[in-house]
């Protein structure tokens, strides 16, 4: 093996999948969304059970309903406030500005994608401890979500992964008729990006790797 990649463009792509929080309200063809979702469903899952389901929302009233609750949840639980970043331009403040933009423009996003996962107790939880609702199958849903992020990047769409819907998940289930045996794992606003895709900043794997034990 020479160490050269057969598909070098993959390595550019995977290193450029930033959270794109500033999205244009311009329409996105539904065919493109299904191209992206079909990349998502190529992900692996235990026994190939494919325990994901998507709720795709483009109804303006429903997007507004979600945006109102998302804003309340972010301001009260994430405790973010526009006052925190006035006159600041450090890295964290720039990220917070993008988060604030996302909060205030959530309702304008062409598509809100809710990725749901079938509830499933992990093997390590003993039968007698299986009380209440099982968690959604995160292990299967996140590879699907990552494929969606990569596919969005490949077709030039912007997307970001958000999880704050957890704060009002019961209400969300009822509003979108999501069955109780599924949990909503992530909410992804998807649209054409306003800014540029850029390289992500991550600690190199060499610094995260422990040889022959930690
Ligand atoms: C499990 C998980 C939960 C996340 N939740 C949120 C979220 O609720 N809101 C948000 O804006 N971004 C969320 N993100 C995105 C991260 O904030 C983002 O990937 C990180 O800040 C690095 O930024 P970058 O991907 O643009 O480099 C989440 C990512 C993961 C993997």
What features would you describe in this structure?
- By secondary structure, this protein is an alpha+beta fold.
- The chain has a domain at 18-59 and 110-194: NADH Oxidase (3-Layer(aba) Sandwich).
- 36% of the residues lie in helices and 12% in strands.
- It has six helices and four strands, in the order H-H-E-H-H-E-H-E-H-E.
- It has helices at residues 8-14, 30-40, 60-78, 91-105, 138-155, 169-175; strands at 52-57, 111-118, 158-159, 182-191.
- A four-stranded antiparallel sheet has the order 1-2-4-3.
- Helix 2 packs across helix 5 (138-155).
- The longest helix is centred in the first third of the chain and has 19 residues, at 60-78.
- The protein is globular, with a radius of gyration of 19 Å.
- The model has no long low-confidence stretch (mean pLDDT 94).
- Bound molecules: flavin mononucleotide.
- Flavin mononucleotide (FMN) binds at residues 18-19, 99, 160-164, 200.
